[in-house]
Design a protein that fits this description.
Length: about 350
């Protein structure tokens, strides 16, 4: 009489084991993303009890508006770093794009045309970075470091060091200051970029090529993939995103400045690495990057509300980047290897 029970329970046990195995494998693969999510939750609780204004609606919406440019560029930077490269010129791209947008509008350009020209300029900057790096084998660190200096100098020359105001009557200002259903437009744009970035990274062949380029580019090339084109594309993505971030920053402040985006690249790279993307390529996570950007934004906002000197924020960002690289290299990479 016990035989039927034994034959019915065996498949169920196998099913439970299979589910547990899959769950364990997923947790192992995304252990750093889970860890960053835990850190974000702890920070929210700490600042909620430490700063009276932290959980107010106005502060949360303002925080999302400020985080948006970092999140937009960090999502694109995830592609570059996963492919084994890096882009240090994003901060200068933010400064140049915002400055040129303000100058063009002040000179009488149609705001829509000025916006399109600035975003196109971002794509051209990324093309140049990718051409030198992917087609000529010059390390991305060197190429984008040189571009950082070129773009910052160009922005300073164009503005003569002064801020250029943008008339609040132009529609383009709504990109940085407007709201949709009460939510800041920059936050909505950042959300759309994050969802699109996740889809491309996780669900399309291009995302798999980016991971393959960072883990074993030679094998990818022998399988027939145009690896140089993939390598160039990720830089175009990042610089275009940086140009868009520059537009959001300039329109939020209604002013374009060559001094915008200073140390912006450090903030972006910290968000990406903190979220679980390997600085050495081959492994990345868009969800982790979004959480990493939120962690940095929450820390900056919370410390300001607690009247801590903003100078400590940069010190903290550098320390977080160093700690994230250490943990990525020594601990979390082992979980990824086991998975």
């Amino acid at each position: 009489m016990n035989t039927p029970l034994a034959t019915e329970s065996a498949p169920n046990e196998r099913l439970v084991v299979t589910r547990q195995t899959r769950l364990t494998a997923k947790l192992t693969t995304h252990v750093q993303t889970v860890a960053v999510g835990g850190v974000l939750l702890v920070l929210l609780l700490v600042f909620a009890f430490s700063a009276d204004q932290f959980l107010t609606v106005n502060n949360i919406l303002n925080m999302l508006r400020q985080i948006a440019p970092t999140m937009i560029v960090a999502v694109a930077m995830t592609f570059v770093i996963t492919s084994g490269g890096i882009d240090l010129s994003v901060g200068s791209t933010v400064a140049l794009s915002g400055s040129l947008l303000a100058i063009a509008i002040s000179a009488g350009w149609d705001p829509t045309l000025a916006l399109a020209a600035v975003v196109l300029l971002g794509a051209v900057i990324g093309f140049v970075n990718g051409w030198f790096s992917a087609y000529h084998g010059i390390p991305a660190f060197i190429v984008t470091l040189a571009m950082l200096s070129i773009l910052r100098g160009t922005a300073l020359r164009a503005t003569e060091g002064y801020s250029t105001p943008i008339s609040r009557d132009t529609w383009v200002v709504t990109l940085g200051q407007g709201r949709l259903l009460g939510i800041p437009l920059p936050a909505i744009i950042a959300l759309v970029v994050a969802v699109a970035g996740w889809f491309v990274f996780a669900k399309t062949p291009f995302g798999r090529y980016v991971v393959g380029l960072g883990s074993n580019g030679e094998s990818l090339r022998r399988s027939g993939v145009a690896v140089r084109r993939v390598g160039l594309s990720v830089f175009v993505l990042t610089s275009t995103a940086a140009a868009m971030a520059g537009v959001l920053v300039a329109t939020r402040l209604a002013s374009g400045s060559a001094n915008a985006g200073v140390m912006f690249e450090l903030e972006v790279i910290t968000a990406v690495v903190l979220g679980g993307t390997s600085l050495f390529g081959g492994r990345g996570s868009i969800v982790g990057t979004v959480l990493g950007a939120l962690v940095l934004g929450v820390i900056a906002n919370g410390l300001v509300l607690m009247h801590v000197s903003p100078f400590y924020i940069q010190i903290l960002q550098g320390a977080i980047l160093l700690l994230a690289i250490f943990l990525n290299q020594k601990i979390f990479s082992r979980f990824a290897t086991r998975a």
